[in-house]
Amino acid sequence: ELPRPYPNEIPHNEKLLSLKYESLDYDNSENQLFLEEERRINHAAFRTVEIKRWVICAMIGILTGLVACFIDIVVENLAGLKYRVVKDNIDKFTEKGGLSFSLLLWATLNASVVMVGSVIVAFVEPVAAGSGIPQIKCYLNGVKIPHVVRLKTLVIKVCGVILSVVGGLAVGKEGPMIHSGAVIAAGISQGRSTSLKRDFKIFEYFRRDTEKRDFVSAGAAAGVSAAFGAPVGGVLFSLEEGASFWNQFLTWRIFFASMISTFTLNSVLSVYHGNPWDLSSPGLINFGRFDNEKMGYTIQEIPIFIFMGVVGGILGALFNALNYWLTMFRIRYIHRPCLQVIEAMLVAAVTAAVGFVMIYCSRDCQPIQGSSVAYPLQAVGLALFPCFLPTPGSYNPMTLGMFTLMYFFLACWTYGLTVSAGVFIPSLLIGAAWGRLFGISLSYLAKGSIWADPGKYALMGAAAQLGGIVRMTLSLTVIMMEATGNVTYGFPIMLVLMTAKIVGDYFVEGLYDMHIQLQSVPFLHWEAPVTSHSLTAREVMSTPVTCLRRIERVGTVVDILSDTSSNHNGFPVVESNPNTTQVAGLRGLILRSQLIVLGLVPPQVFVERANLNLVQRRLKLKDFRDAYPRFPPIQSIHVSQDERECMIDLSEFMNPTPYTVPQEASLPRVFKLFRALGLRHLVVVNNHNEVVGMVTRKDLARYRLGKEGLEELSLAQT
Amino acid sequence: ELPRPYPNEIPHNEKLLSLKYESLDYDNSENQLFLEEERRINHAAFRTVEIKRWVICAMIGILTGLVACFIDIVVENLAGLKYRVVKDNIDKFTEKGGLSFSLLLWATLNASVVMVGSVIVAFVEPVAAGSGIPQIKCYLNGVKIPHVVRLKTLVIKVCGVILSVVGGLAVGKEGPMIHSGAVIAAGISQGRSTSLKRDFKIFEYFRRDTEKRDFVSAGAAAGVSAAFGAPVGGVLFSLEEGASFWNQFLTWRIFFASMISTFTLNSVLSVYHGNPWDLSSPGLINFGRFDNEKMGYTIQEIPIFIFMGVVGGILGALFNALNYWLTMFRIRYIHRPCLQVIEAMLVAAVTAAVGFVMIYCSRDCQPIQGSSVAYPLQAVGLALFPCFLPTPGSYNPMTLGMFTLMYFFLACWTYGLTVSAGVFIPSLLIGAAWGRLFGISLSYLAKGSIWADPGKYALMGAAAQLGGIVRMTLSLTVIMMEATGNVTYGFPIMLVLMTAKIVGDYFVEGLYDMHIQLQSVPFLHWEAPVTSHSLTAREVMSTPVTCLRRIERVGTVVDILSDTSSNHNGFPVVESNPNTTQVAGLRGLILRSQLIVLGLVPPQVFVERANLNLVQRRLKLKDFRDAYPRFPPIQSIHVSQDERECMIDLSEFMNPTPYTVPQEASLPRVFKLFRALGLRHLVVVNNHNEVVGMVTRKDLARYRLGKEGLEELSLAQT
């Protein structure tokens, strides 16, 4: 069982920063061996690497598209199967008047399906829970959430989302596609699977954090693209959520992966649905298409849209606040896997019951169609979307109101369950429902004049609600534009999203950021807190720093690495002058992982008889690549007493030119350097280039802008 | 008259790097006064600054939209006027059989209009020539092209583009909108006009390169947005061409400005055209709308699209190569303004003649419509666009072929003339023409089957041709998607653009990059040349560096600043120890502009009687802001012999924590630091933090990947 933070008191995780998360290192490649390889690289070799990058992106796109197809087709078939089972029984029991038995059967069926989905997540791979978007945001930000891009996670994620959707929960299958795309990208780009113990000996060049991160961006974009049929939106999502240093070539590759992904999805689904070669369908989601000609908007409507944005912001904040309390409750009481499974089953049963009651109370859904029984609430909701087309009055306001209310609370309850599922579709549905309700009211008021068309208010409501919950603006605008196949509404959608974000931010953070904070992740935002200019590197850095001498005794290295109380990951290498006191001239930086590889490779390079001689070059760059990314702990390396007395020349392997910063540099400047270059360690030096401290991610993430100005988060070991 | 490079020999500008361009400094703000102000900033003050940023972006959007409206409306009216004049005469003379006189009248009229347009550009503001896109690219990259964002440039640009279009040249009015937007942004964000000598005392916080650059990005995006009705495309254009450090908040503001710009344009034009409140029209350009339902594409067509991409790439490369030779010829022979005006008139007359002949030879354009006489070739071309709709056979293949050929050479001849005009529309027209021709041929072959619709091939041809010439991919894909209001064609357009870029790059660079290189601009690309890893900072840096001591004699400072042979802009400040030899410990960095402001402000801070005492704080941050960006030369500051002997403490004003790099750092690493942070000066230090050299933009821009590996550009003083 995992250790629980604060088992007996109200958790204050939002004021804490966890140290359990390792950082990714987007600048670790600069060890001597790598530099040597880079020096040897010529134009032709570079071209080969570049072509490989494109090939990998194409593969990411294809596989992500195929996974999306797989989810779509399996959901459709399983839901169809469930429908037939339920239908037969309803027919049978309705004759005998046993509606309550039908309800029971239905709820049980849904709860069992969800149980399976919940069990695999809770017991096999807990990181596959939820949409995965917060986790991917963290990964792209540079925080290594354990297991987040493993093959096992992908398998659990895909099965989990299928079961959640088939189980009739108030969830969408779109969010998890982003996580799935990211895992696929991380897997393909490494040319091996550590879980399956297969190494294809390809793409070895990309076995480091920087390259892997770039491919994961592409994978996330491909996921968005497949989910919403929005390749440009996917690129913007990746950039908005992840990138810091914008690189044109990288962006093109991301775009390429996105395009291939939609293309693959559309090709396969068009064949599956029997109209091959028709590629004009969108992604997994289907909003129904807008008609450009009929649907315009006028300038007078802009205030109405802004008002809807305000409503969306408030409802979104309410959603997030409720979910926050719920999450707190879950952290405190529902931390055992079996309890989590039971909660998921309960939610499934309640959702089924609500859906059942809704269908039988409302006349709108008669005759009951296949899909409405399979996932009843979704069906009511999804039916709203094609009605963006002007068909006023085709919805009963009462039903809509009930639906909005019910679905709002169900979706809120569902998010954070230990099942694999997304929040995009529920948010859109809630918004579309109240938006349409709003539009219907307006058209009553306006006596059916042409502009008061409920369809477009449904769209705006959907945007407002989703914006109020997740607080994305640019990428979401584009996703909505692409998913509806309509660019005319770009401006009002942007206005609505901006308003929703501003209003929502006034109350509470966005849902993803909230969950990231609840996990105490050392997440770095785009800029340092604005009031932090008076802080300098001297104040934020960790000091004293454990340094290694350029020529160091093996025993010292082993002792430092074995010291569980410090557990540092990067060590400045300083001049070997034995007379130095605390401060010493910086010569380089060496990472824990590099030191471990030094000890791993037989014959152990730690073992060096001839004192001060150079180590025989037995170590290859390949050794570092083979060990990446799961470096073993130091305990697995046995060093004899004899070997401990040997000396090792670290300058052979260290990064000779680490980034440094003077101790008077202000926090925002340090932050900018850190963020723009994707650093993991930044050495703080004095005027004589002597090491005085070290800045890592947690030192920067500790400072946050709170309600009363700058606040400093405490550190938690869990 | 400007000095000409290489008057008597074939210029080899493409192997040169000019030193006449100053760099912008995106990190110059870190002087002590600024740091103090930043330390004082609290949350409320920050919020005010943030709100001002949004207000400025809204104003940029509105003004850019209005300028676009102005251009559109004036062009329409002037063209109408010209049409009536010509029409009357043609009617009069055709009766008498004097067609040749009509031709003469027409050509003369066009040539006179173009003459005016050319005269104002050539004699008043030469930087307003062309589309301005290369200049804006340079500005966003960090190179200060003189006068590029001045008010005068905007006025000349707007008048120039109106006259060029009315004069019937093979140009578009879209490209210049980008430049116009940028100038508007630069002007508004500073809250004053130096040209008009008006200071509104607002937005003083933004008077530095970093902030100005951000607003210029927004302005360029707003320009794209107004020109093509493509707000997202505008954002991507700005990012693709300019940004390096992606900042989420900045991107949102850019997006906001873009959206406001399209919105303003559409609102005003809808009122002007008499159907107010209908906001669904696109930007200046009008492709005609696609119908989603009817126009699909199938997977078999993909190879055809790729083939079109190849053709576009080859034709684009041909266009660029021809234009390259032409530009060389112009640099060599047509460097006097009066010759430039004559050339522009000649082109106008020839264009008129060709258009005249074309109209009278082809039956397609009967009856002659208003616009076809006003700008005949454009009209033939623009008429192609609405025909994206499936109306096969409505064009005579012969006419199309003639048009393609003629227009190709005319557009090529026109680009680079001393007139203000863009190349987007001509490229699109050429492409649409041969694309349609290709489509017609296909439909003959396919015997009119449904998929062989010439309309979509026209679109693909347009994309291929434009992509082959300008080599943009991501932003251009989105611009095309938004301008046609169609997202279905995203994937094939992307494929076509990618193919065109790859094929075109094989032969010759993109048009904009070519012109940037011909101007010997020290442009920094996205990444250092791949084969440059073996170079270190030691090899690329300039050395020895002119350093100032922390407490320095005023005379020394004045002498260093007056030294015309060096003309450095940044000086490392070193420890004042008089015993130091060549190397000395780095303490800070001070800029030429900062030193000049020190001397400007009465009472002159150079004058400090009490030796080694601190300067009385008379200098305010405001002094630096008021002097920005046109710092006077040192010669304008008079320093007496007495004053020369005084000492000045530079640590009061310097940047105390400049970015440094160790001398062993590889070129790509230096490059990444420089590019990611937008530096102007990077101090190279040794292991003891002593200054050994300085890296500036020109040191990095000198290394380029040529056909035979890494090549080093020579430096030219012109």
Automatic annotation (TrEMBL), chains A, B:
The chain crosses the membrane at residues 54-75, 103-124, 154-172, 215-238, 250-272, 302-326, 338-360, 372-391, 457-481, 487-508. Pfam families: CBS, Voltage_CLC. SMART domains: CBS. Its main location: membrane. It is a multi-pass membrane protein. GO terms for molecular function: chloride channel activity; chloride:proton antiporter activity. The keyword Transmembrane applies. Keywords: CBS domain, Chloride, Ion transport, Membrane, Repeat, Transmembrane, Transmembrane helix, Transport. Belongs to the chloride channel (TC 2.A.49) family. This is Chloride channel protein.
